[in-house]
Amino acid sequence: MEKNEIEEILKKQGDARGAVFHTDLNYVLQKTASEDSVAKIEEKLKEWGVNLVYRKVEPMSWYPVAWRTLSLLAIQEVLGWDDEEIIKMGRNAPRVSVIVKLFFKLFPDIGKFARQIPKYWTKHYTCGTLKVVELDKDNKQLILRLENFAFHPILCKYLKGYFETATKLTRPKDSIVTCEEIQCTFKDSTPYEVYQIKWTK
Fold first, then answer.
1. Which position has the higher pLDDT, 1 or 125?
2. Residue 43 above 80 pLDDT?
């Protein structure tokens, strides 16, 4: 990461729940089983001006989304992960998030889930607006639009995986769920990202 790229990310406003860092830590340890890897990632963040210690983060407290973005970038750089691994990391997060587990106990149905998505987003982030553009139960499709959340493309990859698993939690266990980003701020010069989610049953 170049210094100017880091500075641009750090200028961006908005906070995320500390739970997002716990899911990062969970996945890193799951894949590497190495405390040394965690220490190297924290050292990289410190080099970038972010004094973050994963185990000291409070899950329900607020932290800059810029830190959350740089956390993913530091993990990718230190561990040499490609974009596919970041997508897998996103897929893993809903399975271990305290907030997600509570939410899906309250809204296990796809229709109820879709109606609650905007509120669900605000439980995690103080910036960005997540909207349901379309819920088509007959054609098994959900389209989401995320506005005003242009931090870095790595978050697009992460959220692709995240939305996939979050939707799967509302479907039968044998359903196959896929998510594709069909519009992106960083590729299409639009003020929002659009995600198309499909399922088989």
1. 125
2. yes
Locate all alpha helices (DSSP H) within the chain, ordered by sequence: 3-11, 19-32, 35-47, 65-79, 83-96, 98-106, 110-124, 153-168, 185-188
> Residue 87: what residue type?
I
Contact (CB, 8 A) for 47 and 1: no
Residue 101 has pLDDT above 80, yes or no: no
Query: What whole-number distance in Å separates Cα of residue 5 and Cα of residue 70?
Result: 10
Token look-up 């931090």 returns 151
Among the listed residues 105, 67, 81, 94, the one whose alpha carbon sits nearest the alpha carbon of residue 32: 81
Asked if the model's pLDDT at residue 1 lies above 90, the reply is no
Rounded to an integer, what distance in angstroms lies between the CA atom of residue 43 and that of residue 68?
15
| The pTM of the whole model exceeds 0.90 | yes
Amino acid residing at 57: V
Q: Is 124 exposed, middle or buried (0-12, 13-18, 19+ CB in 10 A)?
A: buried
What is the dihedral angle through the alpha carbons of 151, 153, 158, 162, rounded to the nearest 10 degrees?
70
Q: How many other C-beta atoms are found inside a 10 Å radius of the C-beta of residue 24?
A: 24
| CB-based contact 47:94 (threshold 8 Å) | no
Question: In a 3-state reduction of DSSP, which class is residue 38?
Answer: helix
Contact 153, 90 (CB under 8 A): no
Specify the pairing of strand 141-147 against strand 192-199: antiparallel
Which residue type does 162 have? Y
